[in-house]
Every structure is written in structure tokens, then in C-alpha cells.
Amino acid sequence: MVLPRLPVDAAEIRARVGGEVFARVSGPDGARRREQIFDAPGKRWFAEDRPIRRVHGDTAMFVGGLRALLLQSLHPLAMAGVATHSDFRADPWGRLQRTSFFLAATTFGPEDEAERAIARVRGVHRRVRGTAPDGRQYAASDPHLLRWVHLAEIDSFLAAYQRYGTDPLTPAEQDGYVLDTGLVAEKLGIDDPPRTVAALAEQLAAYRPELAGTPQARQAARYLLVSAPLPLAARAPYSALAAAAVGLMPVWTRRPLRLPYLPVLEGTVGRLAGWGAVSGIRWATSAAKTAGQSAESDR
To answer: What does UniProt give as the signal peptide span (predicted)?
Structure first.
């Protein structure tokens, strides 16, 4: 018996899903921004073989980005600045789009575009200041807070790539990634950023006495993991990404943020779900990504 063929076009599904992901991450100006970054001529900060390009160009960044936000929230002053001045609840996609553009511009864009991205962020930081719920003053331009945000990001991006990336880095390449990110950190006003994985771990550990699971941090974690506004079709894959991010969080962060700690499930079901979500996004977006890389290599 010959079974009827279902009217499913895999290429059409791939294009539709990839387009939706691209639109969510890049926003309405995504096509123009891609041209600004990948098609514009000029020298780049990082050569094509640098580790930062492998990490920041991989879909494991979806997991790394969520982990970074959770980890960053544990610093009460950094969290107070986000809670008061950020529009992550009112416009979470806009915040994602601005962050992704900054990472793309500084990692892949020509030097003048990368410098403009740095200048925009530093301009925003100069305007963000206030008083935390515990009475302490904060300023986003404070090098100490900037360092914490940087450490949380690169530790998260690297951890996610090593678990879910297409080609995990060797120990030497991991040091190379931390070294690469140090250039961007210095441009943002961070003195003496870590240059090796060992230095990254040492600097992160030095912040432990300052960290706490404040009500603002726990509210942010709940919003990111449970309450983020998503279309129905995106909820299942997003839940898998969120579970993967939680699974990468250090054990000592779980209680302050009220995060579950289920090592057996995280190491089996959670990891498989994370792989499935990351691989699905990679499949859907790989055609567009390849096109962008081809355009860059043709220059």
C-alpha cells in the first residue's frame, strides 16, 4: 500500500521558522543591520579564525544569554539598575534586539560600526544611576558593576557553547575567547578584564560576597523563565532553552534565585531538551547565516 504524501515542504517550514527567529532577534531593521555588519567593507576587530566568532555566531548563545541574565541579577546594584531603567518587561524583544546587535557589531562588524556600538552603550550607561532598595547608590558606568556584567556574560556564553555549541573549544581556545572578549571590555571602560579562563573564574569568585537573591532578582528570574510574553508556538522550545540555562547555573545560585536543582533530570532530560531546541534553531537559521557569511567572504 502506498501511503499518501503529506503536503509538507521542509524548505518552506525552515524558511518560515528561520524568518520568525531572525525577526525576533534582529527586529524590523534586521536586514539593514545585517548589511551594516556583514556586508560593509572595512577591517574587523577579530579575524575569522578567532574563538569569539565561533562562540558568538552559534545558536548556543540563546542558552548563554538567558544564563547571563539570571547570573547578572544576583548583584543587587546591577539588578536595581535593570529593574528601574530597563524596559525588559515592557519590551523584552527590543532589549534582545539591541543586545544581539551590539554583540554582532563588536564581534563581526567593521571597526567603525563596532566603535559606534560601544559609544551608544557607554552613552546609555552614563544616564543610568539611582538608589537601590537597600539605600546604596549605583551607576551603570561604575567599572566595578561593568566588570560583573562582563564576567557573567562571557562565563555564560562560554559555558553554553561548550555544552551546546557545534565545535567546543579546546582549553587554549577557551583562553583565546576570554582574551578576545577583553578587547570589548576595555572599550566599555573595564580595566584589566580577565585574559584566561582561570582569571575569569578568579574574578567571578571575588564577587561572591556581594551577591544576593533579592526580591527584584527572583522576580526577574521568574519573568525570564516562566512569564516571558511568547507566541503559543514558541513556548515549548523557549521552555527547553530556559531549562538548559538553569541547568548550566552554578549550584550556589539556585537557592538565592529559587531555582530547582535536579541534577539527574538536568543531566538527561534537560540536556536532551536543550540540544533539541538549540539544534532546531540552528537548522532553521543556518541558511540565512550561511548567506551572510558568504557575502562577507566575497569582499
So the answer is: none
Separation of first and last alpha carbons in the chain: 54
Give domain status of residue 157, yes or no: yes
Reduced to 3 states (helix: H, G, I; strand: E, B; else coil), residue 205 is: helix
Query: Which of 66, 179, 55 lies closest to 108 in space, CA to CA?
Result: 55
Residue 166 lies in a domain: yes
Three-state DSSP state, 129 = strand
> Is 70 in contact with 257 (CB distance < 8 Å)?
yes
Residue 4 lies in a domain: no
Q: What is the pLDDT of residues 152-194, one digit of tens each?
A: 999 999 999 999 999 999 999 999 999 999 999 999 999 999 9
Give the span between the Cα atoms of 162 and 142, in whole angstroms: 30
**Per-residue confidence (pLDDT) for residue 293, from 0 to 100:** 45
Q: Could you list the residue range(s) of the whole structural domain that residue 176 is in?
A: 10-26+57-297
| Sign of the CA dihedral with 191 first, then 196, 202, and 205 last | positive
Cβ neighbours of 108 (radius 10 Å): 23
**pTM, two decimal places:** 0.84
Which residue bears the cell 499518501?
Answer: 4
Q: Helices (H), strands (E): how many in the chain?
A: 15, 2
For residue 132, CA distances in Å to 52, 89, 196, 254 come to 34, 19, 32, 23
Q: Is the dihedral of CA 32, 34, 37, 39 positive or negative?
A: negative
With left for phi above 0 and alpha for psi between -120 and 50, is residue 77 left, alpha or beta? alpha
Domain assignment of residue 129, yes or no: yes
